[in-house]
Amino acid sequence: MKKLLFSCLLMLSMIMNAQIDLGTGSTSVGVAPISTYYGYSYVQQIFTKQEINANAAGNITGLKFYLSPNAVLTNSSDWTVFLGHTSKTNFTSESDWIPAAGLTEVYTGAISQNNGVVEVTFAVPFPYNNTQNLVVAAQENSSGYDSNGFSEAFYVYNLSAAGSSLYYRNDDDPFDTANPEDGNLSSNKSVITIMGLAPSSIPACPVVAYPANNAQFVPLSPNITWNAPTGAQSYKVSIGTTPGGTNVVNQESVATTSFTPSTPLAANTTYYLKVTAVGAGGESAGCSEITFKSAPPPPANDECTGAVELTVSANIQCSNPTSGYTLGATDSGVATGTCSGNPDDDVWYKFTATASTHFISLSNIVSIGSTDTTDTYFQVLSGACGNMSNVFCSDPATALVNDLTPGDTYYIRVYSYGGAGRAQSFNICVGTLPPPPANDACSGALAATTFPYSYTQTDAGGATNNDGFIEVCTDGTMNDGTWFTFTGDGDTYNISVSMPAGSSFDPEVGVYSGSCDNLTCEDSMDDNGSGGTETVSIPTVAGTVYYVNVGNYSGFTDEMEWPFTINISKGALSTAETAKAKDAVKAYPNPFTDVLNISKIELVKAVSISDVSGRLVKTIDNPSSTLHLGDLKQGLYFVTLQMKDGSKQTIKAIKK
Fold this sequence. Notes:
Blueprint: H1 2-17, E1 19-22, E2 28-29, E3 40-47, H2 49-52, E4 58-66, E5 78-86, E6 104-110, E7 117-128, E8 133-140, E9 155-158, E10 165-170, E11 184-186, E12 188-190, E13 192-195, E14 208-210, E15 215-218, E16 224-226, E17 234-240, E18 249-254, E19 258-259, E20 270-279, E21 282-283, E22 290-294, E23 308-309, E24 322-325, E25 347-352, E26 358-367, E27 376-384, E28 387-394, E29 398-401, E30 409-416, E31 424-432, E32 446-447, E33 453-457, E34 470-472, E35 476-478, E36 482-487, E37 492-498, E38 507-515, E39 518-525, E40 534-539, E41 545-552, E42 564-570, H3 575-582, E43 587-588, E44 595-598, E45 604-611, E46 616-621, E47 626-628, E48 635-643, E49 648-655
Parallel strand pairs: 15-22, 23-25, 32-36
Antiparallel strand pairs: 1-13, 2-9, 3-8, 3-10, 4-7, 4-13, 5-6, 5-8, 9-12, 10-11, 14-16, 16-19, 17-18, 17-20, 20-21, 20-22, 24-31, 25-30, 26-29, 26-31, 27-28, 27-30, 33-42, 34-35, 36-41, 37-40, 37-42, 38-39, 38-41, 43-44, 44-47, 45-46, 45-48, 48-49
């Protein structure tokens, strides 16, 4: 009888203490299970059956989430928690919410943290079927947010599974599960303990964190890493040059979650990697392998004398670019002259000019060095190797190079902007501009006579800056791009400029009255960044002629225009469009000297300022409406506003 009682008590103890821990050890923070840095949030996460790796179906009795013991949750403590089953392994879009009807509410009420742990215990356990994946959803319902060093508070981990979670966060409006708004995808998930389930004695398959599947330019002595599944006591690593092969590493036993081959890998070779876990009950089965390609040898065009010949494209689309990389390249010893950056990994290209102006583009830039950066730089030179003159410097990845001599050979030197550890792969192309479009000048403006009017400017790249930069209503200037005209009739005219998918064109729209030789700015718009739609509404006077210029936003360098579509309609904007325009935050004066003012600062949580190369130069948390920027050098800056509703706005500002 005593033995039976002891056995029953032991089994009860095992059930009560059963738990599965996922993501243990990570102290990265993120938006899961809720956002502490915003007033309201709703987050859904998917934990796969394989990752949970329970020994059987069972009742989930509660969850634990983890954060710093010093974190504050004063304004983030009103939670509703839901669980559910799904066949999805990840969320596929920003609207791919699992319907509320498919979830079970398991907890509602206040939470608190105890020494870095938030434990949520269910009044009624949730029956997990161990055949599907588990959905964990949490809604935070109290207004206000907790700063915690201007960051999220809860620990998350990342297994590079895109769409592992889907989140909504907003300072003003709680999430409506009956009418869900679009959220944001994340590859992060909560560091979590699932209570009530016992892990299988055979551990789950590890998920390789580095290198990623299909990765390129992997170092010859890579530090291979993976997660630690529950119950794993050791691991076996296999590497081969064929699928399933083990000719490089054959099930080598590893005690930790990282491994570096004892012999460097061969360069420019495809490898296949599998990692399995070993636990008390045996070795994980059915683990998939990943494939990666090792780094190539140093580039053949490391020196000027080995410059790769580029074929000049007949257009600006550059349908057949040349691929290249700086990894393994060395400093060629050629002075940069007036150019910037560290050319310690420069590589060389050359082309024969076919026109006086060419478009040079670096695209598909990928960081492949030990330091994560895509900041590349290129220099154009004339002459011959050993006796060269600087022609052009470019920190931006694309640029127009003018004053070339057709028939002459020019060299392009590409390097990562920073020093040791920085390297990139890229595509390079030299393109040819189309002839100037018919509406290149104000005098050739295309007339819009029937509304709604729509026109797609496919040859915008040929537009010239004519007599220079033109004034806009924000006390600045812009490129003289392409022109359109219409005659007012007393109605409001709405002008919208949009770009094709994937475009990086950043236009400004200026609307003028008067005549081409005496224009008066009525309004201008440049609220969005690259690829963003610009919209401006103009109340018109009957009989007055108006001119619309669509040009690159830059007011101090001649930049190229790209294809766009302009639409002109009449009548009042829709409610949504009006609200969007109303909520736009402005920066003024622009250009500025030492102080930049931000309107509607109550909508802004933080400000970051980057230069034209994308380098972050300043961050301001909890900003006031007056930004003191006297320490910045003269030039163009991107002022990114992190809004309290979770969105971002980028404003271009020029410091005089």
